[in-house]
Amino acid sequence: MSKLKQFLLDAETKAFDQGHRATIKFNIGKYNTAVQSGLTQYTDHELARERASFIKSNTINNLDKYLMEFESNFTARGGKVIWARDAAEALKEIGEIMKRKRARSVVKSKSMTTEEIHLNNYLEKNGIDTVETDLGEYIVQLAEQRPYHIVTPAMHMSKKDIADLFVRKLNIAPTDNAEELVLTARNLLRDKYTSADVGITGGNYLIADIGGIAITENEGNARLSTTFPKTHIAIVGIEKMIPSVTDLDLFWPLLSTSGTGQNVTVYNTILSGPRQPQEKDGPDEMYVVLLDNGRTDLLALPEKREALNCIRCGACLNVCPVYKNIGGHTYETTYSGPIGSVITPHYNGMSEHKHLSFASSLCGACTSVCPVKINIHNLLLLNRKQSVEQGMADKPEKTAFKVWLKAMKSRTLMNLAPANLKTLVLKHALKDTWNKRREPLVFPKKTFNQMWKERK
User: SS in 3 state form for 52-78?
Assistant: First the structure.
């Protein structure tokens, strides 16, 4: 089955799943309420968005310069930089590190880039025990699913769903107490941190002027994953760059407020290399894998490169009417929702993923909440345009538009066929789309010309 057909099938299933929609409405509702409260910390939120947009756009336009500055400053403190053109190259390099360290166990903090390159599958195939330490990621790992949401991986699961999962997978006694469920996961994960050979994280920001990575989190699992293991590997997309450590006072609050409604998240960490001689803790070795994986292809498109400004807050998902109806798993991609529909065709191929850019009402809600002011709905339109210009439109679609264009340019042609015949043709054309869930469209018995003449 093609990705488009699978998408349409899954979208229809989820859209009419009342239980799923109730769960998502409840969970997103809580986030939206928190975000509205969090925005009150700003006296001029729009100005903060403007500044963030300017800084990110300037950085992306000069990305080569900032990447070299980052590498120079990071390696000066003993860190090692690995440049990975794609997922295969990143996995190969990480695999080499694992072999050198004879690693048998890994603890991971939440990271969308590791999901992007399917790191867990790779490590498990090579006999390395890999544990997600973020609670949401741990839950979806137990459920053998991909993350549902950029920020909240298990957003699609209710407390009962998680309790049933823990009973089934961890053999605990049935409970509806959320605190007990959290403590169960915490107790199981504690020993993993101290025994792991390697800790793996992502990075919310790359900081050029100090050669560091910034990680923001609420549970402290990233700190634990980088403190106990002797080796730390950070896998970060090259677009995560910001010029200076002083920019964090703008970007950290914007990310937390837009994502979870907090003024700032609980734990904010800057890591700029392995443990130094005067430091008491931290890894003996630290690697940063700078992942391209299609990003420079997007960078090469001036009218679309602003998509690389994204700071992965998830705000556009929470307001998107399509996402709230069809859910995150329907997209079958690492990055779902509006921003995922923009970048995925460039990361994973336009021909297979162009349908995602059409799965939007273009209402502009995503653009209105983006903390770095990415013009998301316009980028979706540009993706649609690109797919058509590259000849990727389906034959029935091309035929339909040719017929429509010819008819619309000729009133005589429009009036030629009787109303019942036009209705019959339309009914057949829309039988698998519009007519599946809606009343069929019917042509009026009288044409506009006839009604206009009668009115005169």
Answer: HHHHHHHHHHCHHHHHHHHHHHHHHCC
Distance, CA of 259 to CA of 298 (rounded, Å): 24
Cα-Cα-Cα-Cα dihedral sign, residues 113, 115, 121, 127: positive
Q: What angle do CA 160, 148, 187 make, to 5 degrees?
A: 55
**Model confidence pLDDT, tens digit, residues 402-455:** 888 988 888 888 888 888 988 998 898 888 888 888 899 999 988 888 888 898
Q: What is the CA radius of gyration of the chain?
A: 25
Residue appearing with tokens 């990055």 = 335
* 38-363-408 Cα angle (round to 5): 175
Q: Which structural domains are found in the chain, ordered by start? A: 1-41+302-393 (no CATH), 67-293 (3.40.50.10420), 396-455 (no CATH)
Instruction: Report how far apart the first and last C-alpha atoms of the chain are (Å, whole number).
Output: 55
Q: What is the mean pLDDT of residues 335-361?
A: 96
Residue 233 DSSP symbol: E
Cα–Cα distance, 271 to 288 (Å, whole number): 10
Alpha-carbon torsion 314, 50, 34, 224, what sign?
positive
User: CA-CA-CA-CA torsion for 40, 43, 46, 49, nearest 10 degrees?
Assistant: -80
- Percent of the chain at pLDDT > 90 equals 84
Nearest partner of 82 among 104, 66, 97, judged by Cα: 97
Measured distance CA(324)–CA(148) in Å, rounded: 11
Continuous H helices in 196-293: 221-227, 248-260
DSSP, residue by residue, 344-356 = HHHHH-HHHHTHH
Q: How is residue 232 written in tokens?
A: 């730390």
pLDDT tens digits for range 211-220: 999 999 999 9
Q: Give the Cα separation of 128 and 229 in Å (integer).
A: 15
Contacts of 393 (CB under 8 A, 6+ apart): 387
Residue 1 has pLDDT above 80, yes or no: no
Contact by Cβ (8 Å): 274, 78:
yes
